[in-house]
Design goal:
Radius of gyration: 13 Å
Distance between the termini: 26 Å
Order of helices and strands: EEEEEH
Shape: globular
Helix content: 10-25%
Number of strands: 5
Structural class: alpha+beta
Largest sheet: 5 strands, antiparallel
Number of domains: 1
Strand order of the largest sheet: 1-2-3-4-5
Number of helices: 1
Oligomer: single chain
Length: 84
């Protein structure tokens, strides 16, 4: 995908994203004051969902970076000592 981070991809409504711990598959959305992003591992054993009260048009770059950081931390925390 043009302009996407390395390792990113999109198809059939799912996004592939690289995270600090593993590849994640998911989907995001924004509607009526909410913004959300859901991630799952390829084997379905690890998931994370982050949803905030925020209109996408009011997102600053700092808020977007914080959201992405929190999403990645939530997803990566599901791995703990378990195998991927």
């Amino acid at each position: 995908m043009e302009g996407a981070p390395p390792g990113a991809g999109y198809g059939l409504g799912l996004t592939r994203a690289g995270t600090p711990c593993a590849t994640a598959w998911g989907h995001n959305g924004a509607f009526g004051g909410f913004y959300s992003d859901a991630y799952t591992s390829e084997n379905g054993r690890h998931q994370a969902l982050l949803m905030v009260n925020l209109d996408e048009s009011s997102q600053t770059e700092d808020i977007k970076l914080l959201f992405e950081e929190l999403r990645d931390k939530a997803y990566c925390s599901t791995f703990g000592s378990a195998s991927r």
